[in-house]
Queue: 2 jobs
Job 1
Amino acid sequence: TAVSSSRFSTTTEPQTFPNRPLNPADSSTSSSSMSFQTSSAAGDILRQERKNPRAEYQGEQARLRLGWSEEAMIAGAKEVGISPSIVGSFPRKEAALVEFFMDDCLQRLIDRIDSGEELQDLIPSQCIYKLVRFRLEMQAPYISKWPQALSIQAHPLNVSTSFKQRAMLVDEIWHAAGDEASDLDWYVKRTVLGGIYSTTEIYMLTDSSPEFRDTWLFLDNRVKDAFDLKKTIQEATYLAEAVGAGMGSSLQGFVG
């Protein structure tokens, strides 16, 4: 069963966001139908676990130990009574698992936005801070294995889907903050926010403070700086470079 959302998909079909401006020069990266199918199949295993709290807990512990790997998928299949042989049908095993997780997290973020919970009275900077933090908190249980996930996303065969998923995440957050830009400002804002997200994500990997307290302070400062008009141009340049660093050179220090 595919991840259901009226607003996003990793299929090759172009997506339309209801009542929202499109990228002025939209050329969204396509991903193969096989990629979507394998992500969906990997998702079936995880959704089956959620029907049984004990299976969900045990499955989560197995994934934490095994990381984003074929072994983790086999363990998950066994936990929910699915033949492990199904994993062999996934040509992009680890990537399918990571991509499903990213899609699932995006759907949860969309649900949070649509609920209007704690967002209606916030100014844009507060809204962005809250949503970026909410999204990154989803990765907290897997933080010890997240460098592996970033490495998988950065692989040449997977990077286009990874970029598209992150672009949709950034777009959703900006729309939730009330942005309706459709000109050059569209690119600048998303570059800045993409940089904020990526640098905070990398910072989180080395944060040993209780409940990632230092990470959230780092995020708060980055958001405030981005909304400081005196620093906008400088920050945009720095954060644009950080996007590449988040998926490239900075990652090397964690994966060897």
Note: Residues 94-255 form one domain.
Job 2
Amino acid sequence: MFGKAPAAPTTARSSSVADLLDGWPDTAAAPATDESPAADTAATTELPAVERDIPRFRERRRQPRGSVPDGTRVLIVDDSQTLVAMLRKMLDQNSYETIVATDAETALASAFDDPPDLIFLDIVLPGMNGFEALRRLRRDPRTKEVPVIMISGNEQAVEQFYAQRIGADDFMKKPFARSEVFARIEGLRDEAGFLHRRTSGKIGAPVTPVAE
């Protein structure tokens, strides 16, 4: 009698999402053959939930946050080099074109000369403050329709109220997360992805983070 052939070695399979992503779709079951009836059953067995979700995860990862047309111009007005660098990196990575001003006077000159599509405007600035800068933006026909998101580290709610009263479109309190930045932008987009002034709703209201 011939002895039984040794069983084919099995390969341990990781269940982590990272390993599944790296191996997708190479980890799919091999096609069934006439010589391996067990493969028919394996091929028809429903995949674990984590594997079924992999295409969805990948699709979400490909979608840019707060997606707008490439080259959308954003003016960042803040005297904090750290905040400017952080915000600029977030936007540059998502195909925005960024312009920076560290004071209100420079920001106004830039905005009037070539109006941006969106302005992030700090309230506390050297010289003219953000509120006065916002008033001037709203009075000038070249910039009165440019969306403005005001930012501040001050916890007083009166700043948020006043910002809305004189024409801000949204408000973010420092420090803010990347997800909030793009959620605020998302709230100003139309169906085509272009940015517009807010027509309703309270600024600074809680937001739902944009999926990565």
Note: DSSP finds nine helices and five strands in the chain.
